[in-house]
Amino acid sequence: MNETLRIRYALSGSMLGCMLVACTDKGICYAAFGDAPRPLEGALRARFAHAPIERDDQALRGSVRAVDEMLSRPHDNIQLALDVRGTVLQLQVWNALRTIPAGRTVTYTELARMVGRPRAVRAVANACAANPVAVVIPCHRVVRCDGGLGGYYWGIERKRTLLRWEADTARVSANSRPVRR
User: Fold this and answer.
1) What are phi and psi for residue 42, nearest 5 degrees?
2) Is 139 a catalytic residue?
3) Which residues of the chain have pLDDT under 70?
4) Pairing relation of β-strands 142-143 and 53-55?
């Protein structure tokens, strides 16, 4: 990372446990979930080892609220400013992930096809695993070909919770829409 990059972060509680949201001046660069703040802060500092990092809960209140809204209202198609950096393939995969509707899943094979790399399933899975902004880029919506959940950097139980929540809120949204005649 560029040493002139300045990162601020905030911590909050969420339906998935402790949540850390980090931002540059351009947008969210990191979002993570865990059981306690210290490991999340350590992971942030390791990922951006050469950048000055400071905690600023007050300044990032809006960003934290926006990520929390993505969790609680996954079907609202909330778009947030991001500042994510990766390889060309990673960026392609992350962009494709953002097109998968809440409540739906795709397989790693389908995702590889979506980015025009049908034989690069393992590389696509690795790009999902390298996703720096959990939930904002919804890599949790990718499952194995056999329907198994596969992995999730923030824990398989969090992935299961997210998928269940999105499926449940999809049913509620569908049932609460007005009937058009």
Assistant:
1) -65, -40
2) yes
3) 1-3, 171-181
4) unpaired
Query: Which CB contacts under 8 angstroms, 24+ apart, belong to 100-103?
Result: 100/138, 100/141, 100/142, 101/75, 102/74, 102/75, 102/138, 102/141, 102/166, 102/169, 102/170, 103/74, 103/75, 103/166, 103/167, 103/169, 103/170
Task: Count CB neighbours of 124 within 10 A.
Answer: 27
CA distances from 141 to 37, 59, 66, 136, 152 (A): 25, 30, 19, 12, 10
Estimate to the nearest angstrom the gap between the alpha carbon of 92 and the chain centroid.
Answer: 15
Here the tokens at position 137 are 């880029």
Tens of pLDDT, residue by residue over 108-128, are: 999 999 999 999 999 999 999
Query: Up-side HSE of residue 93: CA atoms within 13 Å toward CB?
Result: 32
Q: What does pTM read for this prediction?
A: 0.88
**Which residue in the list 23, 29, 128, 139 is annotated as catalytic?**
139
